[in-house]
Amino acid sequence: MNQILSQDEVDALLKGLDTGEVEAEDEPVEPQEDLEVYDWAAQGRNLKADMPILGLMNGRLATKLHTALSGILRKRVEVEAGPLEAIKFEEFQRSLPIPTSLHLFKMEPLRGTGMLVIESRLVFNLIEAFFGGASMGNTKVEGRDFTPIERRIIEKVVHMVLQGMEEAWREVFPIHPQFIRSESNPLGVNVVPPAELLVSVKFELELNNTGGNIILCIPQSSLEPIRDKLAGGYHQEDQDQDEGWVHLFGERLKEAEVELSVDLGKTRIPLGHYLNMQVGDILVLDNHFESRLTARVEGLPKLEGYVGRFKNRRVFRVEGEIVS
Question: Hey, which bits of the chain come out as E strands?
């Protein structure tokens, strides 16, 4: 059959389409079953399952912060790393108060800029713990700039986190975190596009029944080059390295200094007695001088024994262990 139309037939067909005398048939669209909707946000939510090694390194960082802060404050500071979360940068910006304690850093050789947030209440609680004050856990601290002393404490904590990151990442992928600058207004920070996904982890710190949080955020694009390593893509050789790291960490941990104190006793006295107390006054304690005393390690009861004197020095003889 001849499919070629003459010029008159073409003109008649076009005229019919214009006047509606000829109806155009819709071209059938074949269903494309091989297409599926790609949810970028869902990709971010899967990060915590896709990068278990990153969670392990965050746990190592929490341990290092616990050791460093407990040593400086001479008080037990509990640090726990939360789960990995994915959040868009613009949502992260809006979630922070103004002013805030936001710090930017590089992670060479990885590209991109990491972000570190130290909650205001944590700064105040660390200062109170350092100077031996009472807890400020219920005090409102937002809405004002930090004082020079507070900024100094913040600098120390930022340095601890970056140094701890370098040590915690060393066995998987060595990085060299470098501090860039600090910001008080998160809305003025434009280091990544607003829709960029951040991998976020919250470190919860507790001391004296109060504390605060440290939030660490890394752009997802910065982690893409090493995604296989963070997903656990290394096996026996890396497992041996990890066991070596655990052994080395255990040996180094034994060198850490802890505070040991002995409870001689306690008593209760009227406030007036305390106000009139003078040098030479004698207080009667609740312990008998021949009773076993309790020795505390970092504030926790661990040993029992007796106090005495040996070569003109006061000593404590261990008689047993307190099992908690």
Answer: 78-81, 85-88, 102-108, 110-118, 176-183, 197-207, 210-219, 260-263, 293-297, 300-310, 313-321
Helix (H, G, I), strand (E, B) or coil at 52: helix
Alpha helix stretches (DSSP H) within 255-303: 271-275
- Domain holding 194: CATH number? 3.40.1550.10
Place of tokens 């809405």: 143
The H or E element that residue 60 is part of is helix 52-73
Considering the entire predicted model, what is its pTM? 0.60
pLDDT tens digits, residue range 219-266?
A: 999 999 998 888 875 444 555 556 777 777 787 788 888 888 888 888
Find residue 307's DSSP bridge partners: 316
Q: How far is CA 64 from the centre of its chain?
A: 11
For 14-48, the DSSP string reads HHHHHHTSSPPPPPPPPP-TT-----HHHHHHTHH
Q: Are residues 294 and 156 in the same domain?
A: no
Structurally, how many domains does the chain consist of? 2
**193 — phi, psi (to 5°)?**
-60, 150
In DSSP notation, 211-255 reads: EEEEEEEEEHHHHGGGHHHHTT---HHHHHHHHHHHHHHHHHHHT
